[in-house]
Amino acid sequence: MDSRSSQEQRKGAGAGRVTQELHTVLRRTEEDATGSDGGEEDEKEEERSSDEGFMGMTPLLQAHHAMEKMEEFVHKVWEGRWRVIPHDVLPDWLKDNDFLLHGHRPPMPSFRACFKSIFRIHTETGNIWTHLLGCLFFLCLGLMYMFRPNMSFVAPVQEKVVIGMFFLGAILCLSFSWLFHTVYCHSEGVSRVFSKLDYSGIAFLIMGSFVPWLYYSFYCSPQPCFIYLIVVCILGLAAITVSQCDFFATPQYRGVRAGVFVGLGLSGVVPTLHFVISEGLIRATTIGQMGWLLLMAMLYITGACLYAARIPERFFPGKCDIWFHSHQLFHILVVAGAFVHFHGVSNLQEFRYTAGAGCAEDGTL
Ligand SMILES: [Zn+2]
């Protein structure tokens, strides 16, 4: 056998696999579109004969056939003529949560189709909108804060930069997230790049949340404030680095992912204890805003637990395909946690404003 014909055969085999995958998705899409289960035998017969015909083709013809099928599929997606498909026919790279049985988008190698799918109902609709609306909410809140008159701050520029870090973290996290959920079904490569951005966004939100909290809580002790900031930045960068590994995004690492980000957030326990010991429990819970911080931690941790354990869909497979599955609840809890944190920080800012720029001899706040 000469090398050219063996190359052709390899090309044909690869093309065969792609065609088969497309056949399955197209068939399921068409079945759902017509809503008919009747004529199943006819379809099977047709499929069998088309597969037999396909196997009888020369490798070059098979490659051509695959290209035609691909073009037909891309055209359908481009026109928005796609239907949701069940979990079992998804290609491996789109199989993430096997408790969501139906309502998945098919692979759609077109950004236009992915963005148009924001307005369709499928397993990602809730995930996209929770963080798209959350992102717009924090964008408005951040702009309002930045345009507040300077006289409501002790050190306007410094304080706006510090609080701006929180808003930047929140906006980056939420926008990477809704973008990831939108283009997740584009292709394996695109999904991989955006999932890394999505995870990095969580680290940005956590780092950004620490900045104004540490700034106001350790206003009169700049040295520990600076050390804690450096430590959280190092830990945050470590989490971002781990997120760049391909294995990190796989379904088996769901628990590890939740653990990494909960661990990053819980690194705040050390400065919290420092604060409580130096200020006393009463001052910590009143002017120190510990109650709000505790509520924030509870919201984030509950979200991470639901995410890792895939509750509630684990108990009701197929019942939470579109609404109220764990990832959606986790998204809502992240937005709520970020808002509670902002509320605590703006209370700290208000206290600083009423107390003025002065510091007592041994206070941290
Ligand atoms: Zn998400």
Automatic annotation (TrEMBL):
Keywords: Membrane, Metal-binding, Transmembrane, Transmembrane helix, Zinc. The keyword Transmembrane helix applies. It is a multi-pass membrane protein. Zn(2+) binds at residues 181, 327, 331. It is found in: Membrane. GO terms for biological process: adiponectin-activated signaling pathway. Residues 1-11 have a biased composition (Basic and acidic residues). Residues 1-55 are annotated as: Disordered. One of its GO terms (cellular component) is plasma membrane. Pfam families: HlyIII. InterPro entries: AdipoR/HlyIII-related. Residues 32-45 have a biased composition (Acidic residues). The chain crosses the membrane at residues 128-147, 162-185, 197-215, 227-249, 256-277, 289-309. It comes from the Eukaryota. GO terms for molecular function: metal ion binding; signaling receptor activity. Belongs to the ADIPOR family. This is Adiponectin receptor 2. It comes from Myripristis murdjan (pinecone soldierfish).
